[in-house]
User: Fold these one by one.
Assistant:
Number 1:
Amino acid sequence: MTEHLFPDNTVLCNFAAVNRLDLLRSVLGGRGRWTEAVAYEASRSAAKLPPLLTLFSDAWLDEPVEITEASDIRKINQIRRVVFGGTDDAPLKHLGEAQTCYVIKNWAAFAGSWWISDDREALRYANFQHITTRETIDIICIAVADGEINAGDAFDLMNQMADSDRYLRLPKSSEELRR
Amino acid sequence: MEGITDRVLSLIAASGQNRRAFAQDIGLDDSKLSKSLNGARRFSSLDLARIADKYGVTVDWLVTGEEPALAVAARTTSGEARTALEAAKRYSTMREDLAVLGWEQPWRPLEAAIPGGTYAEQGKALAAAALARVAEAGLSLTDATLPALVEQAFGADVAVVALDEGFDGLAASSDEAKLIVLGTSQVPARQRFTLAHELGHLLAGDDQGVHLDKDVYDRAQAKDPSEMRANGFASAFLMPEYILRSAAGTAGLTEDAFTALSCDLQVSPSALAIRLQQLRLIDAGTCDRFKKITAAKAAALADRSEEFARHVADAGTPRPPGLLVRDSYLAYESGATTLRPYASLLGVDVDELRRALEAEEGVPGVL
């Protein structure tokens, strides 16, 4: 079974902020997927980060995964509230996280998929749920290992992300990216 | 039975818009909306969240057509009561969701059935059973703060929310959640009475849903049977007969003993005087004299003004529901949730809270 890779909107924004979504695309290697709520969040973020619009035109994350079963919809809404702290008054808040966790945990087609996020809370929760997680720094390490970018440039790139008001775990040196 | 499509159609009709405008509002193209309304496509999780967001309904309502009593009450009420109801709705939903993860409301109703007699007598009987529970739990009305005592002995959550004057409290009851919400107050004895009154409603099983008490001292409301029972409960619970008889002894109550007793029990002198007269422990003349003493004056006479000042400050301070705070933290600790619901209950930033929880080093030089 192919394991899919689900970057959340924070990760998409990190790469869009430095206009290097191509690097993320290369690492995901055709296995990237997103849910409809993550796609919606990306469309909203595109107002400030226009490179995100290419995700829709190039479609390398495939068609957004739609959830249409009533029982799934209710469970996702409940997870959104009780796990991620959402409320009924703001039904879109944390929907992307809840949908992603839910389909990875409950849909056979996505069993074993990775969740890529830089949100500490989401990562901690996913680890407790035995969902494999990766952060932007891990994606960059893979890109370095694959020869897509050298470690020095990758180090600079991550610092550019941080300088663009993106919150992510940073390496202390370029050496750390050669894992 | 109506389905999701019917409810979406009802929202379109209520909005006064055509389908095209509605589709634009929720970010669907016309053909997708048409297919969804014709049954050729199902509404998705995102569609429903966008509809809920735009039109002020909940995803659960769109899916099931059901709306919890608290949500209905919050939607249809205005003023201070609405603020209290919004808080109650939020806390109750949180408990209902936590219950699914295994953290159920530890509600402990009284085993004994409500006896016969007048409603006031029923309230007193309930109070006797409730006081036995308090004693059994090793608690005392004069030691513990009342919200913590109610949570520990009965397993109902107690929250205090910041409200202007004009709303005393409410009791919310569902199969999964038992909750009392009080307004902040500058009158601690009134807040304490309200809490006991709402506990009376919960223990008597008066309402499935929500019971609002805008003014617990309202005379017209006090004629309602369930209010009479809740008032009888509150009076007998906060001013237990055995304590009053013990204080009165055989010689009766001096003014000094009376003011000390009102401070011990944290009740208003007027309420205490009336209760003492009802128990025939003081006569009508003494009752009238004692009733004229204010709570502040009683504290001064008993040389307990510092304690009184603290009670006034406490009554004006918001308090998140204690059992929900405990359980949302345990859920986080076990990895069943993120830290966000707990941080939200405390009203603090989640990143700051996480940093505080993860800080390993103390202040240099401090053990």
Number 2:
Amino acid sequence: MTQESTIPEFLPGTLYMLILRTLASGPLHGYAISRRIKQSSEDALAIEEGSLYPALNRMLVKGWLTAEWGVSENNRKARFYKLTEDGRKQLERESNQFERLVRAIQLVMRPT
Amino acid sequence: MNWMRELARRSAYLWRRTRFDRELDGEIEFHIQMRAEELEKAGMPRADAARQARREFGSSVRMRESTRAAWQIRCLEDLLSDLRYGIRALRRNPGFAAAAIFSLALGTQKPVPVSRRTGFANRAVTAPRFSSYLVVKPATVPD
């Protein structure tokens, strides 16, 4: 079994960025968001439900997302989260910052 | 003006808290069912799948609390509940409420010029204050 990291532990603040990135390709419900992140990280990242929903709601307050009830792929009522224009801008800001940070860390860690 | 829009969204939440809680319950239920279905597809018996999904979800009470906290304006909500408490207390004790309102009405009025001739407030200047009808003029003591 692969080692799982829960996101808030591993880098604070990245949860927002990962959610924004996951929603960039279209609206999803909460369960699908955590599925998608788990899959695209090849099971390395797991979001705890206890932090997913509070984070989604903080993002609604900030206006990065909107939420709407719809019908899920298996015909159940589900709440779908959608990126707003502000959310898209925030995603761009955060991923730029993140890239700079990663590059800087790599520079320090480079074998000499 | 981002913070203003944020404040507007937070205030809107104050008026639909019951609906918000109901919707959050629905969302949690959906999440657990989806996970249970997934476990079942992977070959787990239905009852076990449902139990495991619920266990994996963890404490929904704490999660609900912090989800709500995302919207709350702490001081405003405290103020609202203080006001509600105050109104309830006054309703339980209408005699006390009347006395309190009456004495505050007496005490907090703006001073008004009182006509020397009639002893009443000078209506030409401003409306008479309620207490000017009630307060007895102190007796003048001759030297």
